[in-house]
Write a structure and sequence with these properties.
Rossmann fold, 7 helices, single chain, 5-stranded parallel β-sheet, alpha/beta, binds 4'-phosphopantetheine, about 170 residues
Length: about 170
Amino acid sequence: MTRRCVCPGSFDPVTFGHLDVIARASRLFDEVVVAVLHNPAKSGAFDAGDRVDLLQRSLPEGLATTGRVRVVAFEEMLLVDVCREVGATAVVKGVRGPTDYSYEVPMAHMNAHLSGVETVFLAGSPRWGHVSSSLVREVAAHGADVSAFVPEVVQDALSTSPGPARPS
Ligand code: PNS
């Protein structure tokens, strides 16, 4: 049986922290569906198509070519319905610290209540603990160098479409 998980998120835009979690999830599961979803608490800077495109172009060669990791937008859907649709038994999320944990746990319980899906939390790498999409957007909007936090394709996108900094 294929063990498939979903790595969900806003990915607005993808950072090295997200890519670390996706790579680690791919070592635990046979297949990873990276689901670009809508977070009602965030208004968004890049549209869903751009987020998918940036994710696809940011995946390391080893992941992009295996076919075991795919990136799909499910903008209007509940995460549990995405899991059902793609046949995933687990959600994988990175947790940078206590703030992420207290934000993620109620969602994990709600998703388990709705459908029985399990959430697996990966301890975020300390290397990326201070990196969030919103901080990257804010720093980039001021013209500062964000090459330590995001792939080159994302740097380019940030330099040509400097969306307003919103929480992420
Ligand atoms: O990267 P984020 O913004 O922390 O990811 C949050 C996200 C998009 C995974 C969450 O908002 C989500 O699951 N949205 C889809 C709608 C949904 O299922 N809402 C109920 C969550 S219990």
